[in-house]
C-alpha cells in the first residue's frame, strides 16, 4: 500500500508550540498537526480500513481519526514534513506483513544449563532451613 495516494485526504492544522525559538515561539504557529480520517476516507478499501483501525486502535480518536503532531522544529514547513514522514512510517508499518515464526527447540546445552540453575537455586533454598541441634 502506497501512503502517497492518501495525501489528498490529509488535513493539516497549525498552532503555537513550545520549545526552541525564543520570542518567536509566542507569535508564530509552527506546531504541525496532521489529521487523517480513517473511517471516512474514500481512498481506502474496506479491507485496508479494517487493517488500519485494528493496528492503529490506540492512536485513533473516538471518531476514527488519526491525529499526529510535531513541534520540535522552528519552522512550520519543517514540522509539516516531519509529521508527514511520521504518518508514512505509521501507515507502512501497519500494512507490513509479520515475519512467520519458525518453531525451534532449545539446545541440549541450554536445557542442561537451565536444569543446573534450578538445582543450584534449590540447594540455596534448602540451606536456608533452620537446623535444630538437639
UniProtKB/TrEMBL annotation:
Gene Ontology molecular function terms on file: peptidyl-tRNA hydrolase activity; ribosome binding; translation release factor activity
SUPFAM superfamilies assigned: Peptidyl-tRNA hydrolase domain-like
Domain Prokaryotic-type class I peptide chain release factors: residue ranges: 8-128
Region of interest called Disordered, as start-end residue ranges on this chain: 98-134
Pfam families per UniProt: RF-1 (PF00472)
Keyword annotations of the record: Hydrolase
Entry annotated with the keyword Hydrolase: yes
The protein's name: Aminoacyl-tRNA hydrolase
Gene: arfB
Amino acid at each position: 500500500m502506497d501512503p502517497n495516494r492518501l495525501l489528498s485526504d490529509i488535513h493539516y492544522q497549525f498552532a503555537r508550540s513550545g520549545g526552541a525559538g525564543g520570542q518567536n515561539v509566542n507569535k508564530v504557529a509552527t506546531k504541525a498537526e496532521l489529521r487523517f480520517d480513517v473511517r471516512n476516507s474514500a481512498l481506502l478499501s474496506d479491507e485496508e480500513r479494517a487493517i488500519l483501525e485494528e493496528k492503529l486502535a490506540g492512536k485513533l480518536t473516538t471518531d476514527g481519526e488519526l491525529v499526529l503532531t510535531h513541534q520540535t522544529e522552528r519552522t512550520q514547513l519543517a514540522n509539516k514534513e516531519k509529521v508527514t514522514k511520521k504518518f508514512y512510517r505509521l501507515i507502512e508499518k501497519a500494512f507490513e506483513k509479520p515475519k512467520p515464526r519458525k518453531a525451534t527447540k532449545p539446545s541440549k546445552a541450554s536445557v542442561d544449563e537451565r536444569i543446573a540453575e534450578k538445582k543450584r537455586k534449590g540447594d540455596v533454598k534448602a540451606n536456608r532451613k533452620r537446623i535444630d541441634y538437639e
